[in-house]
Amino acid sequence: MELLKQKILLEGTVLNEKVLKVDSFLNHQLDPVLTMQIGAEFARRFEDCTVDKILTIESSGIAVALATAVKLNVPLVFARKKRSLLMSEEAYTTEVYSYTKQETNHITVLKKFLPAGEKVLIIDDFLASGAAASGLAVLARQAGCEITGIGIVIEKSFQGGAAKLRQAGYRVESLVRIGSLKDGKVTFL
Amino acid sequence: MELLKQKILLEGTVLNEKVLKVDSFLNHQLDPVLTMQIGAEFARRFEDCTVDKILTIESSGIAVALATAVKLNVPLVFARKKRSLLMSEEAYTTEVYSYTKQETNHITVLKKFLPAGEKVLIIDDFLASGAAASGLAVLARQAGCEITGIGIVIEKSFQGGAAKLRQAGYRVESLVRIGSLKDGKVTFL
């Protein structure tokens, strides 16, 4: 997605060889026009598939997942990283380690929102080691859902998560694939 | 907002006299059509104002804030409840207690995303005691921003937060106002 590449080159900051900061448009401040275009692009890439529901994880996945849900006209569910007092019902849960937060979360979706047999499209902002996307796939499989595919805004291909998910048979559609962040520079694949 | 009232009566669950659960369309599963209509309604209510930026808080505020940002064509910023490794820059921060999570968070926005003088519209899903909205207002005031108003999807008027904010001089626009959750029943104002 050319527009996204330009935005990354213009506004992204390479913090180190592993971390690209895009907080001006993707995960702290959001550009609504770009966000809706990202949703439209995911919808286009998966237009040959049946999608009953979008599955994402709080917080940075929500905006791009909503933009996709609007285009595909299907509901979205976001996994919670922390159970609230209101989530007393039966839930699917699994552990996900966050590198940027340096913590392990039990991510959770209430069972009633993932009926067996539904075709689920997983959407997230970043794919690095693949922990979050794999965790969401675990929840969907626990539920007996079919995973249509995984849509990622920015894939850091050099961290191996995308390759692992593709080897496991998932269709991973990344809008931008980054081959390296060496020497403070973003190199796209 | 009549549509939202109908949705609450149809799908909401009164857990006790203080808590209304609307996780099927507002804060766990999201209905994309309704979400965009909520954004359009906020845009309509504040159409007489200048808005430079939407300010909300993760996670449940993000979707409705994005829908509003799309309609008003302005960026949105969501306050983080937890600082990540990537938020090393200077930030505005304040304490907010969450009743449903039973924890105090230091909510944070990077200074660069709240320039002094900007006109900020605060958006959130619920207003009960007003802790979250007040916290966001504190951040905006720390930044020297002007607060255009506060847009709330569901105001639980009987918990006093909305009255407190209105007394403090803020324009609070709530799409639905709930007067009571007594006897397992939602009573609108």
UniProtKB/TrEMBL annotation, chains A, B:
Pfam families: Pribosyltran. GO terms for cellular component: cytoplasm. SUPFAM superfamilies: PRTase-like. Pathway: Purine metabolism; XMP biosynthesis via salvage pathway; XMP from xanthine: step 1/1. It is an enzyme of class 2 (transferase). It is found in: Cytoplasm. One of its GO terms (molecular function) is xanthine phosphoribosyltransferase activity. Xanthine binds at residues 20, 27, 156. It catalyses: XMP + diphosphate = xanthine + 5-phospho-alpha-D-ribose 1-diphosphate. Keywords: Cytoplasm, Glycosyltransferase, Purine salvage, Transferase. GO terms for biological process: purine ribonucleoside salvage; xanthine metabolic process; XMP salvage. InterPro entries: PRTase-like (IPR029057), PRTase_dom (IPR000836), Pur/Pyrimidine_PRTase (IPR050118), Xanthine_PRibTrfase (IPR010079). Residues 47-156 form the Phosphoribosyltransferase domain. The keyword Transferase applies. Converts the preformed base xanthine, a product of nucleic acid breakdown, to xanthosine 5'-monophosphate (XMP), so it can be reused for RNA or DNA synthesis. Belongs to the purine/pyrimidine phosphoribosyltransferase family. Xpt subfamily. This is Xanthine phosphoribosyltransferase. It comes from Dendrosporobacter quercicolus. The lineage of its organism: Bacteria, Bacillati, Bacillota, Negativicutes, Selenomonadales. The gene is xpt.
